[in-house]
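Note to self: keep these together.
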Amino acid sequence: MWNRRVGGKSPERRDRDLATVLQRAKEQLQQMIDMHPQVLLLMRDDGTVARTNRALLDLAGLTDFREALGRRLGEIFPAGDKAFFDRMLRKHKGLAMHEARIRLAQGAERDLRFTVVGSGRDADLSVVMVSDVTEAKRQTARDEKRFKSEAVTALMGGLMHSINQPLTVITVSTRLMETALDKGDVDKDALKGHLRTISDLVMQVKELLQRVAELHDFVTENYVGNIDILDIEGSTGGGDGSGRGEP
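Structure:
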C-alpha cells in the first residue's frame, strides 16, 4: 500500500490533479484566444472548424459558437469561388496567405486575408487566421491613384515648361511668315531662315519627347509655389542631379 502512495498521493489522486491542471490550462488558453482581436480558427483535416474565438462571431455576424463549430469555412464565409477554401486548406507545410472577396451575413462584401499555418501531410489540424483588409486595400488604391495623378501632373508640367519656348518661337516665326506673304513682301532668305528655325525646333521637341519616353528616374524640381514639375534633364541622365528624386 505504501508503494502506491509515492509523495503522499495515490496514482488516482495524481491523475485527477493532472487532469485538473490540464483543464485549467485549456480554459486559460481559450480565454486568451477569445480575447485576441484577430479571428483564429483551428481547422480539422476535413475542412471543418474545430475551435475558434469570439472575433469570428463579430466578423461573420454570428451569435453563438455553435453556428461555427463543425461547419466548413465556405458556409461561414461565402466566396464567389466555391473551391477557394478547398484549395486553401490542402495539406502543406509552413505558412501561406490567400485573399478573397467575401459576402458576410450582414450582406456587406469585404476583402478577407486568410493566413494558413500547416504542418504537413500527417497533420490532423491546421490554424487559420483571418484579417479584414478591405480598408487597407482601398487606402492602397487611393494612394496609387494619388501618386499616379501627381506623377502625371509633374510630367505634364515638365513637358509644358520645356516645350513652351520652342512652341512660342514656332508661333512667332509662322506669324512673321504669314504677315510677309500677306503683304507680298517675300524675302526668300528670311523665309528660309524661318523655315529652318521651325524645322530645328520641331526636331528639338521630337528629341525631348524621345528622352521622356526613356526616363530611367523620376526627379522633380520646384516650379512655382508648391508646384513640382518633372526635371527632364535630371530624369534622363542630364543636368547636375540636383533635383528631388521621387520614390
